[in-house]
Design brief:
The chain is of the alpha+beta class and about 70 residues long. The protein has one domain: ATPase, nucleotide binding domain (Nucleotidyltransferase, domain 5, 2-Layer Sandwich), CATH 3.30.420.40. Helices cover about 40% and strands about 10% of the residues. A two-stranded antiparallel sheet has the order 1-2.
Amino acid sequence: MILADAHGVELARANGGPSGLGLGVERAWASIGDACARVFQAADIVFDWRACALGCGLTGVNNADWCRVSRLGA
């Protein structure tokens, strides 16, 4: 994961666990949330979802049921 400011300047990088929707939507979002928390911690910035614009490439998003449930949980 890469954290950048509003101008695209990279602030920090961090790794996360698996986030494919085939693992379950809740597990995927938990992994994404953990990675977000790690990258904010690496930048010494308090993590707040409201301050994020997130782009994800999730395996399984082509499965209509997983995609629908994921959108509901986002």
